[in-house]
């Protein structure tokens, strides 16, 4: 029996309905967070203040969902006393739900920057870079949630590797925008708003990577944090 089958067995036999419910709620929260990021970027690109304000309003819903999942996990810990791979599943969801909430915070910040840009006037630069990074980050978030639903550690590793591409693209975009601000100081305020958007997108990628690391540990017991990619790939290839 492989690790995926063991985890599924834990859900259906040992953790039963309680853990299945919390896992479903976690994935539902992930779906809302994913939509928040998409909506925040659509609001930015389309200069849609109403959509931006809807994203801002929805942030409180994400916060409530985080609290609900945390409370469900605490009940499971108190009543079930999980051990070994069972405990890894509970811990992974507990840590990953925090990353989801922080991704929601970054969507909130992007929406707030959209409102600021609407009031101050659009930025002369940075939208193309924001769209490009947003597409990559949205794909990462979608893929890691899909991997979580399927207990797919190898797919999670692909998400981890994708984060390095985002980091490089982010750094290049920031250098370009800093250069432009130096050439045209009148654009500083508006450029700074776009830089805040880029920073938020880069952090979304970081949080997606964190979830991927937790998933790898949950499914295979491999500690992926601060571990060389070659070593992670070597160990996953042995599975």
List keywords for this structure.
PhoU; mainly alpha; PhoU-like_sf; Methane Monooxygenase Hydroxylase, Chain G, domain 1; 239 residues
Could you explain the architecture of this structure?
It is a single chain. With 239 residues, the protein is mostly helical. It has a single domain, classed as Methane Monooxygenase Hydroxylase, Chain G, domain 1 (Up-down Bundle), CATH 1.20.58.220. The chain contains 8 helices and no strands. It is globular and about 60 Å long. The model has no long low-confidence stretch (mean pLDDT 91).
CATH class: Mainly Alpha
Write down how many β-strands occur, each being a DSSP E stretch of 2 or more residues.
0
Gyration radius from CA atoms, angstroms: 19 Å
CATH topology (fold) name: Methane Monooxygenase Hydroxylase, Chain G, domain 1
Spans where pLDDT lies below 50 across 5 or more residues: none
Largest sheet: none
CATH architecture: Up-down Bundle
Q: CATH superfamily, called what?
A: Phosphate transport system protein phou homolog 2, domain 2
Number of helices in the DSSP assignment: 8
* Proportion of residues in extended strands: under 5%
Family: Belongs to the PhoU family.
Organism: Amnimonas aquatica
Subunit structure: Homodimer.
Pfam family, one: PhoU
């Amino acid at each position: 029996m492989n690790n995926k089958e063991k985890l599924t067995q834990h859900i259906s036999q040992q953790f039963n309905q309680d853990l299945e419910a919390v896992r479903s709620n976690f994935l539902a929260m992930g779906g809302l967070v994913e939509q928040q990021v998409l909506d925040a970027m659509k609001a930015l690109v389309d200069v849609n203040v109403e959509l931006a304000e809807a994203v801002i309003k929805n942030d409180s819903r994400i916060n409530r969902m985080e609290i609900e999942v945390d409370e469900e996990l605490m009940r499971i810990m108190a009543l079930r006393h999980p051990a070994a791979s069972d405990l890894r599943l509970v811990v992974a969801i507990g840590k990953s739900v925090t990353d989801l909430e922080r991704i929601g915070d970054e969507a909130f910040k992007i929406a707030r920057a959209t409102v600021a840009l609407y009031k101050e006037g659009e930025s002369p630069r940075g939208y193309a870079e924001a769209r490009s990074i947003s597409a990559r980050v949205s794909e990462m978030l979608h893929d890691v949630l899909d991997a979580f639903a399927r207990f797919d550690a190898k797919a999670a590793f692909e998400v981890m590797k994708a984060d390095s591409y985002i980091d490089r693209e982010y750094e290049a975009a920031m250098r370009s925008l800093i250069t432009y601000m130096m050439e045209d100081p009148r654009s500083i305020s508006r450029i700074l708003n776009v830089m805040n958007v880029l920073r938020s997108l880069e952090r979304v990628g970081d949080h997606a990577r964190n979830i991927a690391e937790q998933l790898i540990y949950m499914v295979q017991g491999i500690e992926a944090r601060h571990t060389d990619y070659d070593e992670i790939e070597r160990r996953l290839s042995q599975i």
